[in-house]
Structures are given as structure tokens and as C-alpha cells.
Amino acid sequence: MDISDTLAPTSDQLDAVDLLPGPRIFTIERVTKGNAEQPVQIHFAEFPRPWRPGKSMRRILVACWGTDASKYVGRRVTLFCDPEVKFGGDRVGGTRISHLSHIDGPRDVPLLVTRGRSAMYHVEPLTEAPAPITEPTPEQVASCTDPDTLRSWLPVSRPVVQQRINQRIAELVDEPNIPAAATPGGVDQ
Question: Model pTM?
């Protein structure tokens, strides 16, 4: 009996423990705004929960890809669990970038390691071809808020999943009808 599926964390994001089996390559589907503590959410085609990179990894992304996160869509990243990551002085492990697509060669980016001390962080180019788009899980369909992403899943999905996708698209693009009397200024035109 394989018990690996019982080890998944009960979390709403990709965690370092998800990467304990080894590094994984992900394709960025979209980037959305998070909250004040975790302001960036990166959604992957291959994983149902978003990655919420810490400040150091956001600095790597900006140094390699720029500040416009809309340009990250379709790019790929290799993530791994680094057991040496510290939080509050304790080694707790963390998610780190090892490779990025869309860079022309290895990059060394200066990062603050501790107050007043910096170190170079090394990133390699990712040259492996992206994985083909696969049929989404029901959870991915339900959580997706981008109609274009949903439409991209239609050709690779079975009819029952296509029906779920089309229902989700309809939910997202269906806008309430505004009565004519509700025009700006409250005056019928």
C-alpha cells in the first residue's frame, strides 16, 4: 500500500514539504495579488495550489525577469526544498529557485542573508521544454479565475471535464444585467 498521498499538507499553498521528493519544474499560468503578508501568488499549470514566494525569491524573479509579472505567464521555474532556510533563527526549510527559463545564462543575484550581510544567489537557465498541457483537476477548474486559461484546457480534456470548464467560464463571464434606470447620475437617458 502506497501511503504517499496521505503526506500532502493541509495547506492552501505550495509548501517546501511538497518538494521533499526532489526539485520540480513548473509552468506559470498566472500571477495574482495576495495579502499584505504574502503579496504575490504564482499559479502553476502543474500544481493546484499557488506558490507564494518570499521576498528573497521575489527579488530573484525581478532580477531575472523584471517587475511586470504579467510577462511571467508561460515561463518556467524549477523549485526545490532548501533545508538550510532559516526563519527566526531556526532552520525550518524553504522553497527556493534553482532554474528559470527566459534567461540567457547563469545569473548571480545579491541577496540579504541576515541584517548587514549579503551573499550571491545563483540561478541556472532552464532549457528543458515545457510539459504538455494536461487535463485539469476538478479543483483546478473550480479555483481558476482566468477564462483564457480555462479555454486552453478544453482541447486536452474529456467531455465531462469540458462541461465543468464551460460552466466555470460561464460563471466568470456572466455579468448581471444593469437596468436602464440605473445609469450614472440616476437619470434615464
Answer: 0.64
